[in-house]
Design a protein that fits this description.
Two copies of one chain form a homodimer. The first copy, chain A, folds into two domains: 3-74, 60s Ribosomal Protein L30, Chain: A (2-Layer Sandwich), CATH 3.30.1330.30; 84-230, SPOUT methyltransferase, trefoil knot domain (Alpha/beta knot), CATH 3.40.1280. By secondary structure, the first copy, chain A, is α/β, with parallel strands linked by helices. In chain A, 31% of the residues lie in helices and 22% in strands. In chain A, the strands form two sheets. In chain A, strands 7-6-5-9-8-10 form a six-stranded parallel sheet, covered by helices on one side. The first copy, chain A, has a four-stranded mixed sheet with strand order 1-4-2-3. The radius of gyration of chain A is 19 Å and the shape is elongated.
Amino acid sequence: MLRSLRDKKHREEVGLYAVEGEKVVSELIAAGHPFEQIYGTPGWGGSCTHPIAEEDMARVSHFPTPSSVLAVGRIRRETLSAGELERGLTLALDGVQDPGNVGTMLRIADWFGFDRVLLSPGCADLHSQKVIQASMGSFARMRTVVADLPGTLAGLRAPVVGCTLEGEDVRDLPALPDAVIVIGSEGRGISGEVRRLLTRAVTIPKVGAAESLNAAVAAAIVCDNLRRALR
Amino acid sequence: MLRSLRDKKHREEVGLYAVEGEKVVSELIAAGHPFEQIYGTPGWGGSCTHPIAEEDMARVSHFPTPSSVLAVGRIRRETLSAGELERGLTLALDGVQDPGNVGTMLRIADWFGFDRVLLSPGCADLHSQKVIQASMGSFARMRTVVADLPGTLAGLRAPVVGCTLEGEDVRDLPALPDAVIVIGSEGRGISGEVRRLLTRAVTIPKVGAAESLNAAVAAAIVCDNLRRALR
């Protein structure tokens, strides 16, 4: 059962996810994350609900070299409350498929004090090991909601700002206390349906020759510029 | 022989490196990168010096599913010319071990029009598949030099700006047309020896709760702020 939690479909059927590794599990416990079960071998120094032998950990682990801990949490599907997106700052990810980028963007939203991260259903699964690990503990702190972006953003009164290759200079972003910042996928950018709902498009000015920036890097620069405008 | 080029020690002995995959090899060829040999299977649509059979590619490839192309290049160890660091913008990486981060920072330096990237010998090897791949072609365009940082930065007349957790606000960075921006490793930050040589330390203001930012993300924000100051 534990081993099958690496499979998204199975995770959704049982409503549970698993994450393993001393560093990531410690970070989440330190951030107050409520795990249902913590399986630890004798080498695990932290709290533990199910002590297990190293041989058993080797059987359930997906790591070539198993760690001393594997934690199981319950998937909580958060939903948006009415008008929620019109208050505060939202980072919206439109089809970001790389789990490392999704995790890094949770960390960025957390650093810049965003209120929530909105993910389109096409994004990498929030409850995968790679997303949780790349978030460096921010998975436990950030409010995250998976929702259809066009339906959610249509008719919104707050500004919807997209990061594109042909917008206005991001350095001229005004102080927006309530806003949704949309980041598209690395390969295709923001989808056509979402692009039509943007009230503003911004671009990070390029001086050199690279064709694009990594999606998480672009998100961080937009968040930093918005925070600078708001200070 | 080709297969052993995945090993850094072997690469240095023979002075060659290998990179495989249609996307990355195409990007490098498009950027004008001079390869010595290009091994392509019948499925490879680009230029090719050594046509090989799919079975042979499967033998030399490190990919579980081999691609149609593997290119071999000669390692060129560039050295700094006298006074070079005192002119233009340098991104200096101090012990950045994650190859994805090193490649992403080549891409960032390329986007922001930096003149060169300086890497301490403790950084991930520039000629590894992961670094080259994460650079998205910038490996071919950016001038890179591997050098001992304390020895290279000592006595420099250009400002040496380090990204740390306890510096002045990065948004107050002045317009520095010549500067070295130092980024430390994710785990340990900038080493003590290099820290003593900084003429200025900057910090990205935190609003939320994350403990830190990814090294490449931090580098991008500092580069963006410097470019903003220079515009």
